[in-house]
Amino acid sequence: MPQSVSRRQVLAASLSGIMLPAALRAADTEKKDGLDQVAEAARTIPVAGTTDVLVCGGGPAGIAAAISAARTGVSVKILEAHGCLGGVWTSGMLSYVMDAEKPGLNAELPQRLKEMDAQRQSGPKNYVYDVESMKVLLEQMCDENKIGVQYHTRVVAVEKNASNRVRGVITESKSGRQAWRANTVIDTSGDGDVGALAGCEWEFGRDQDCPCQPMSLMGIITASPEALQQFDRLKGGQTKDRFREFIQAAGRDPSYAKPTLWYLGGAVAAVMMNHEYGVRPFDAAAVTEATIRARRELYEIARGLRSQGGAWKDCKLVTTAEQIGVRDGRRIKGRYFVTVDDVRLGARHEDAICRSEFGVDIHAATFEANKKAAYHNEGVKAKPFDIPLRALIARDVDGLMMAGRCISGDFFAHASYRVTGNAVAMGEAAGITSALAAKNACLPQDVAWKEVEAELTRQRQPAA
């Protein structure tokens, strides 16, 4: 019989180095507190690659981090759990970018999408885009900048040395377990998966559990242009709840009281029409159930719209997102903690990497609360506030940065900075800082702010 391994030994092995749990072929089964548990024997994991900057998650923040790091002159690798780059933009089919009136990649992306006839501006800060075009563009930009990408690869453990420095991560994919090493790792997983695996302290929702913001599954519907354009958000179609009332007339009461439609051209529109309440994004079973419920709701709403006949007679749900949209995930503790006071007072910081100009956007935590108000600011009036670089540097370990909605902040600040225009700007700063740390053979917190600021300024200059 193989030697039994305790749960504590397995966890210690997974966090301390490359010796990690093996497959079930070498496992014992034990019972603890009435539950069956499997103890895996240790094995050696092959190092699949070494890079200057390792980006864990290819969403808006991850793409920006990777491109900015590569443009600083270092080697970069992206590990992405899904089958495309873009995260919530593509796998999540968000179709709408907010708070993006910022220089750098925030200006470059819509311009390049426009050249592909795949973008429609909604005022100075927001725009609608074509999801498939965004996928192609992001892959093209990674190719242009010689960035390595591996899809269908999920981080399952973090390697740290004796000095509590993150040296790399362990992943699972069709290729089995693989190890990846880097000078600096950037957590752009959205839900703070890497920081949590590294042992960092984190917050979620209003405390360590829900109440938290609800999830929404995006979808694409088809109907006549006449039908879709009457409810297009960019043309005021959400005014006075007209779209919700039309859905209700078709026999459905949507779980989101402010159902929204973005007309994409032709006979196609993106829709956000549902809320899934009280779901923790790191509970796979709960996320699965929420996804199934949400997809069924979108399907039934589309059927109801079709039953209205006339311009809606050919309405169909064409597709739903590969991943449900998550508003609320882990927030990893950094070297600065962005608070509601920063939001109220419009905080300014010397090491500001961007300014959030989006209001505090708290979606209802329950279906009953949703009936009263689908979203609100809970009385917190936001002033444009700075996000400092320190909020992107992990506090509890070395060699780890964060970008996107998993940075260091409280529930109310997160409700403002979580939109993807800010995520892109955070990614730029995290990528540049990580690249300079690799060049200088130092930790992110030891990179001089003036170096980061100079490189940010250079990369954010308008193209000639």
Automatic annotation (TrEMBL):
The keyword Lyase does not apply. It holds the Pfam family FAD_oxidored. It comes from the Bacteria. Residues 1-26 form the signal peptide. GO terms for molecular function: 4 iron, 4 sulfur cluster binding; metal ion binding; oxidoreductase activity. Gene3D superfamilies: FAD/NAD(P)-binding domain. Keywords: 4Fe-4S, Iron, Iron-sulfur, Metal-binding, Oxidoreductase, Signal. The keyword Transmembrane does not apply. This is FAD-dependent oxidoreductase. It comes from Bremerella cremea. The lineage of its organism: Bacteria, Pseudomonadati, Planctomycetota, Planctomycetia, Pirellulales.
